[in-house]
Design a protein that fits this description.
Layout (H helix, E strand, L loop, with lengths): L17 H8 L18 E2 L5 E5 L4 H6 L6 H13 L7 E4 L6 E4 L2 E4 L4 H18 L3 E5 L1 H8 L5 H4 L12 E4 L2 H5 L4 H26 L1
Parallel strand pairs: 2-3, 2-6, 6-7
Antiparallel strand pairs: 1-3, 4-5
Helix pairs in contact: 3-8, 4-5
Length: about 210
């Protein structure tokens, strides 16, 4: 007999509201990642944001704080948003996976990429956040977020730079994750990648402005 895949769907509240989603997600055991994480890190931001930014998963600092994008990648995102003319307070930010997946590296907790099974198990939370926030556009930060949006493994560079329609939302953009910018060891390459990230964000803002005109 085939075993049914575990999923966060069984933890969704009957009535979808942000407060109830956050409360229900705190007790989610829809995959095994909760066992090593400090807590669920749910999304946060404007209740009716026009833009929803989706990252991969919380990092070490996010896992401890219980908030998304508060570590080094979050600071890079904040800087890029400011340069692109986008106010973070007007956004909703979340992750494709709500628990920190890691492996020990000395005294550090080293980030570990979530599996396709874990991404799929957590997808109902992302779908519910979209249903409540009703953003005009979803911005996927990195390949894992794009995989959650498109429902399959994708190549980031093949999707970057133009809007896509997916089953999760009618307008989806894909760009790099700010942590990928930080990982470049060469300062020149790091700056080039950061500039490309800012330009992606500017293009998305202009796309929204043109749609609203």
């Amino acid at each position: 007999m085939r075993r049914l895949a575990r999923s966060a769907r069984t933890f969704l509240p009957a009535q979808l509201s942000m407060a109830q989603l956050r409360e229900s997600a705190a007790g989610c055991t829809g995959c095994d990642l909760y066992q090593c994480a400090t807590q669920t890190v749910f999304g946060e931001g404007a209740g009716r944001a026009s833009m929803m930014f989706v990252g991969e998963q919380p990092g070490d600092q996010e896992d401890r704080a219980g908030r998304p994008f508060v570590g080094p990648a979050g600071k890079t995102l904040d800087k890029a948003l400011a340069e692109a003319g986008i106010a973070r307070r007007d956004l909703y930010v979340t992750n494709a996976v709500k628990h920190f997946k890691w492996e020990p590296q000395g005294k550090r907790r080293k980030h570990k990429k979530p599996s396709a099974t874990e991404i799929a198990a957590c997808r109902p939370w992302l779908e519910a956040e979209i249903a409540v926030v009703k953003p005009r556009v979803i911005i996927c930060l990195g390949a894992t977020a794009a995989q959650a949006a498109f429902g399959k493994a994708v190549r980031l560079n093949e999707l970057r730079g133009r809007p896509w329609s997916t089953s999760i939302a009618p307008i989806v953009f894909v760009t790099v994750h700010p942590s990928a910018v930080l990982r470049h060891p060469d300062p020149v390459e790091r700056e080039r990648e950061y500039r490309g990230f800012v330009e992606d964000l500017r293009s998305i803002r202009l796309h929204l402005q043109l749609k609203a005109a």
